[in-house]
Specification:
- With 462 residues, the protein is α+β, with helices and mostly antiparallel strands.
- The chain has twelve helices and 21 strands.
- The strands form four sheets. It has a nine-stranded antiparallel beta sheet, sandwiched between helices. The chain has an eight-stranded antiparallel beta sheet with strand order 14-15-16-17-18-19-20-21, with no helix packed on it.
- A hairpin with a 2-residue loop joins strand 19 and strand 20.
- The longest helix has 15 residues.
- The N and C termini lie far apart (53 Å).
Length: 462
Amino acid sequence: MDTARIRARVCELLKEYGIPSAAIGVLHGGETTEFAVGVRNVPTGEPATVDTVYQCGSMTKTWTALAFMQLVDEGKTGLDEPVRSYLPAFRVADPEVSATVTPRHLLNHTHGIEEEYGDPGEGDDVYERMVENIVGAPQVHPLGHTHGYSPALGYAILARVMEVVDGKRWNDIMRDRLFVPLGLTGTNSGWEQVDPRRAATGHLIRSLEEGPFVSPLGCLPRAFGPGGNVNTTVRDVLTMASVFLGGGQTLNATPIVSGESVREMTESRVPIPDPYMFGPEWALGLIVCDWHGETVYATDGSTIGQNARLRILPDRDVAVAMLTNGEPRESFYRTVFNEILTGLSAATIPDLPEPGPASHLDLSRYEGVYGRPGTRYEVHAEDGRLHLTWVLDPFHARLLGRPDRIRYELLPVSETHFLMPSDDPLEDTQTVAIYDFENGVARYLHTNCRVHPRARDERPPR
């Protein structure tokens, strides 16, 4: 890899996108290359280094899944035993889900339980309280019916199972089962544990003219811990990736999980309704991508102002990781990774599909209001074209200086898939699936891995 060329290119891209810094690492054939560019804090101008600690957001789920699979290897847990086998009092609104939901449903985001866990606080009992708080939580969709990303709840339930069977708090489980055995020097499970002299500061951006500003929210609540609160360095991310390339052990032959657990994590898959933005399938703690016929495993994450990306190419013995302290941009990640992958003669990230004509579609089948608490999408037809209006919550709109209603045109790719381009230079084209037709209309809208059911008795405003 031509590190000097890639470094110079990343410097250009950071300025173009308004991202303060990036730490990038490549593991290829057992050899590691890493570098960092930019600043870890814009107001202070302190430079980022390869030892800078970033928040990795939902990449945390891969770490948690690995620790859970250790318990599976030891016979303490199973993937297909009901959660009630470990948490006898477990209950949600649907009695059947209460009795039959399994760790596999939690790991692959098919449990369908709404994220109605209230305020569980910041104490050591946070995951116990989350489980107690969901006794009335409804189903977004029937158990196992479709994939729908669970930002916090699914992995919090999983963490509570781990706590009960292992006799430790989730934070201690992660330290004792992963961070210490892996020899990690910059990874922990809570922002309060990070040395401020190494910490990257999260940044948001409202305009390229204004540039990035420090995020007003320093980190995610503790409720997101098992699904979003690991902090790490790019070197430590590559160490975790080596477990997948090494069939369960690291480069120095430290065993972490069994080869069977790695196969389970990578080969137990469910389809993703929107296959274009991240990948067509979700495994256990990993996204499964198809890059021009080659299987690639992915794990991503974002907090409010930081972002993490990892791609594992087992057929090439390659892993590429990037941590940034700016907002996630798909086009930035694609450009950087494709530059690196091309230099390694490896498969590159496929482009989004081209749109086709909408004339053959009955647009009335898609019209409706789709949403979850805090999220609302209004889909309606106008002059033979389909449009989506995203209704932002007031806090989000105020924070980013955006209107509370943003309208997009949906360009059809197939009968169920659409491109959603934006006029905003800070926003990349997104993809949307509107699918699962019943009585002539779609039941769900899936975008950014989240699923949103149709509001049956509500029509979008004209």
